[in-house]
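so my prof wants the structure for this chain in the tokens format not the other one, which i didnt know existed until like an hour ago. anyway here's the sequence
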Amino acid sequence: MSSEAKVPSKKTKERYDLFVADYLQHFNATKATITAGYSKKTARQQGYKLLTIVYIKEKIQIEMKRLRDRMKDEGLRSFAMLIGIAIDTEEKIQKHNEAEVEIERLNDLIGEINLELAELGYERSNVQRVADAIDGRKKELKERKRGLLAHKETLDAQAIELEMKLRKLLNEKSKHERHYLPTKDWEKLQSLKKSIFQDILDRGGFKAIDEIKHSGAVNVNNPLDGLTEEELRRLANGP
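here's what i got, hopefully its the right format
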């Protein structure tokens, strides 16, 4: 059984419930993570991980269903489908946040390895230069040259090992870069998420996890008015 499918303990469940309750107020996973008592330093990554936990996903789905059930008016019902898009958008933002942290960590490691390779390359070059300058035909110098060449082989092996590590780190970085958003796209998703959630919450009268009220028609300056579902999904998915 995967870790996310395990039944949480009572204490963990209380923290999860607190996360969900706060998350449903603003749909900001990072903020909800901090409210639930997790570390501020890792809140962005932890927020993304929490949204993937089965218990939390099911809890959010239940509350979203309660909100949908209160959207009796057809005009409001059309916004129910935006909930899924908005949550997908939030997950995309969280993946970006996690990727940003990982890319920074990997860049540090890549920088360290490149520095080691540069120093190793300099040493290999010097050893080879000294060995080449020795006349190996002379008996008294033959052992020294042989020792230098053996050392050069050791350095070559170390360089190959470092290059393999570097290649592995670059591949890992490439995977995270798939989730990394350019500034313009990140800002667009943030704006989209804010507009959708604000409209949904205003029209649904969503106040708290145990108190969802419908107050009737609400006049909201909605920048998404007139967009079809397909157009909204294109906005959420990006170019």
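also thought this was worth mentioning. Residues 70-237 form one domain.
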